[in-house]
Amino acid sequence: MKVQYSDKVSQVWPLFTNVDIDYGKDVHLYDRLGRKFIDFTSGIGVTNTGHCHPRIVNAIKEQSEKLLHGQTTILYNSMVDQLSYSLQKILPEELNCFFFSNSGSEAVESAIKLVRHATGKPNIICFQGGYHGRSIGALSLTTAKSVYRSGYQPLMPGVFVSPHPYFKQYQGEDTEKRTKQCLDELEHLLNSQSSPSETAAMIIEPVLGEGGYVSPSKEFIKGVRELCNKHDILLIFDEIQTGFGRTGEYFAFKHFDVVPDILVVAKGIASGLPLSGIVANKKLMDKWIPGSHGGTYGPNPLSMAAAIETIKVLEEEDLINNSKQMGSYLLSGLEKFKNEYTEIVDVRGKGLMVGCEFVNENGSPGTLIAEEVRKENLSQGLILLTCGPYNQVIRWIPPLTVKKSDIDRALTIFGSALKNSLGRKNEL
């Protein structure tokens, strides 16, 4: 969709709301007409500390008076060390070396380049439904929706896609059986398409984001880790959307008792300022040829200041625990709607990363239903997004600062939107 900003200027962006935003505060956004909205998108999982958290705003203000840009290969900035130390405290000891950049896609590109340098092997295995970005390398690993890839192929060679166990989409299918099938297919791929001697890494979102907010079983993630160990293949966890408390843990890999070789982070790291990074063991990072990768802007001083303060806020305000508790509260409220409306086939999630999936009467993906419900919520002041290969899932991504009263208000609006939208479902 082409968004017209004025009579003379236009930009090509997809636009999901008509909200001309003025400012934000915690879980709320205010437009230029004075309307107040509950924002349960967090800028797609970015503002985990809420909009314009005063401590983070102050940290940015203070830094802006000192230095706006200090190119990392020219100047040493101890803030890089300070941020690294802050991250080391919340990560396993084997993840102890950092490379920072600006965006999630850049971080994925960094991981691709690292594993190829470190292993001398060209190929990467990704999993169906994953989203890893939209630059060409990252897009080559993205299979969440065809719209992301349409018109850009052929993409980067050396990428192979393995099945992901979409348990909730396979209604009635045995979880253990599906796990075994997918792991068998993964090993078959290593024996039929990309041999271990040519496979540098596997990359996976521990919880699918754009692919539908689907979490695989612990057994599946453990099985992937074991196959990587068996065949001397590196394991990359893309935690761009799941990181920094979103799933009720600092990082989603903690739900599975598995540690990746490379961790990709972005979004919630700096509460809205552009910053991303990859984390690995120093022995692995040391195999990266110095000067073979870099960038002008990352890590930017303002973003680092925001990230350092973000971690302090997450810790001192107990936001990780709040994510876990409020996520359970939200799931409980949504389950009541699932019991009332047959169009809601599933409610699922970890922490404050929650999906509500819709189907039509014939069991097909409820794309139009989900979109109608989303629009109706917007008209009543609640901003939500959809996801999934058919956009059949409404996702709930509130800031980790969210309170029960905020969730209660959002659920009230959602209930009203369901009633209004599903009452008109024959018109869809």
TrEMBL record:
Keyword NADP: no
Reaction it catalyzes: 4-aminobutanoate + 2-oxoglutarate = succinate semialdehyde + L-glutamate; (S)-3-amino-2-methylpropanoate + 2-oxoglutarate = 2-methyl-3-oxopropanoate + L-glutamate
Cofactor(s), by name: pyridoxal 5'-phosphate
Gene3D superfamilies on file: Aspartate Aminotransferase, domain 1 (3.90.1150.10), Type I PLP-dependent aspartate aminotransferase-like (Major domain) (3.40.640.10)
EC number(s) stated in the UniProt entry for this protein: 2.6.1.19, 2.6.1.22
SUPFAM superfamilies xref list: PLP-dependent transferases
Superkingdom of the organism of origin: Bacteria
Family: Belongs to the class-III pyridoxal-phosphate-dependent aminotransferase family.
UniProt-recorded name of the protein: (S)-3-amino-2-methylpropionate transaminase
Taxonomic lineage: Bacteria, Bacillati, Bacillota, Bacilli, Bacillales
